[in-house]
Design goal:
This protein is an alpha+beta fold. The protein has 6 helices and 8 strands.
C-alpha cells in the first residue's frame, strides 16, 4: 500500500499494516513520541479510566498485542506503519470505532444519533511522525492510506477527530497527535460536529 505525497512535493511513503512489520519497527516510531509527558502507546482512547494509571510496560504490551506485530497472516491489526525507503517514520492508528471505548463519551456524541457499536464505522485516533521527519506531509499520506485500508476491511465510514489549526499559531506536537482538520479534509472527510473549540469530529462515507 503506497500513497503519493500530500501536500505536493512530499516524499512517497511505503505504508503497510502493522501486523506485517516487526515490533522493533513500530516501537521506533511510537517509542519516540511522548504525548502529555508519557508514552501513551495508543491506549488513551482504549480505556475508560485514566490511561496514565496503566504502567508504561503494560501499555506497550497492549499495543504490541493489538497491532499483531510480526504476524503477517493475522486478519486484525490496530494500525499502519509508514516507511521512507527502509526506515520506519510514521504510524496511524485505525480500527473499528467500538475498539475505542473513550469515544463513547457524551462530548463526542453531542447532537448525534447512531449506533455506537457499529463495527463498520472505523476511527483514526492517532497519527505520529518521528523527528526529524515531521512537517513533510506524511500525516496526509497516512490518513489517506488508513481510509483505503478500512475500505478494504469492509468499513462503510471512517471518522477522525482533528485539531483546528490557525496560521502562525503553534500547536504542540502532543496535542496534534490526533491529526489536523486540514489533513482529514484533504482525504475527503467532512465536518460532523465540533464538540470543543479546537476539536472537530469528521467523517468520510465509503
Amino acid at each position: 500500500m503506497a500513497m503519493t505525497g500530500m501536500p505536493g512535493g512530499a516524499a512517497k511513503l511505503r505504508i503497510v499494516p502493522a501486523n506485517e512489520v516487526s515490533w522493533d519497527d513500530l516501537l521506533t516510531v511510537v517509542g519516540s513520541a511522548r504525548a502529555f509527558d508519557a508514552l501513551c502507546f495508543c491506549q488513551r482512547f482504549k480505556v475508560l479510566k485514566t490511561w496514565q494509571l496503566i504502567g508504561e510496560e503494560e501499555r506497550a504490551h497492549r499495543l504490541r498485542t493489538q497491532a499483531e506485530c510480526g504476524y503477517p497472516d493475522s486478519d486484525t491489526t490496530s494500525g499502519l506503519v509508514g516507511y521512507l525507503e527502509d526506515e520506519p517514520v510514521a504510524w496511524c492508528a485505525v480500527e473499528p470505532r467500538p475498539a475505542y471505548v473513550r469515544l463513547t463519551r457524551p462530548v463526542t456524541w453531542a447532537g448525534r444519533n447512531e449506533d455506537k457499536t457499529d463495527e463498520r464505522v472505523w476511527a483514526i485516533t492517532c497519527t505520529l511522525t518521528r523527528t526529524p521527519y515531521r512537517w513533510q506531509g506524511f500525516t496526509y499520506q497516512m490518513i489517506a492510506a488508513a481510509v483505503e485500508f478500512a475500505r478494504q476491511r469492509g468499513a462503510r465510514a471512517v471518522e477522525g477527530y482533528g485539531m483546528l489549526t490557525e496560521p502562525g499559531k503553534v500547536i504542540t506536537w502532543g496535542e496534534l497527535h490526533v491529526g489536523s482538520r486540514n489533513a482529514f479534509a484533504a482525504a475527503g472527510f467532512r465536518d460532523v460536529t465540533r464538540p470543543t473549540k479546537r476539536r472537530v469530529v469528521m467523517r468520510i462515507d465509503l
